[in-house]
Amino acid sequence: MKKLALLAIPAALALAFTTTTLAADGKTVYADNCAKCHGDDGKGATKMGQKLGAKDYSDAAVQAAVTDDQAFKAIKEGMKKDDKTLMKSSELSDEDIKASVAYLRTLKK
């Protein structure tokens, strides 16, 4: 029984390492998929962000008004206003979306 427990520890560590290695890098996902409109700093001051009215996610009050679930849904399903597409739906994996939302939270000043 003790040998089985000793074998389980390396297996658990290997699984944790693999999961961590394969986990989405939120900063990269954000840079590749969000920064064009929202900017590297989250301020939405890019040409496209200004055209579409992107919010300033470096503002703590703006971030407080949006839950992680709301942000996830907006990324997954996109956003429209008056038949105008503000943000297209994303084909990112759920893991990548969660990682990008987590990274977005770090932009709050």
What is the element layout, followed by pairings?
Elements (H helix, E strand, L loop, with lengths): L1 H21 L3 H8 L1 H4 L8 H6 L7 H5 L3 H10 L1 E3 L2 E4 L6 H12 L4
Antiparallel strand pairs: 1-2
Helix pairs in contact: 2-7, 6-7
Helical proportion, percent range: 55-70%
For this structure, what is the CATH homologous superfamily?
Cytochrome c-like domain
The structure class reads mainly alpha
Q: How many helix segments?
A: 7
Question: What's the short version?
Answer:
61% of the residues lie in helices and 6% in strands. It has seven helices and two strands.
Task: Summarize this structure as a short list of keywords or feature phrases.
109 residues; mainly alpha; Cytochrome Bc1 Complex, Chain D, domain 2; two-stranded antiparallel ribbon; 7 helices; globular
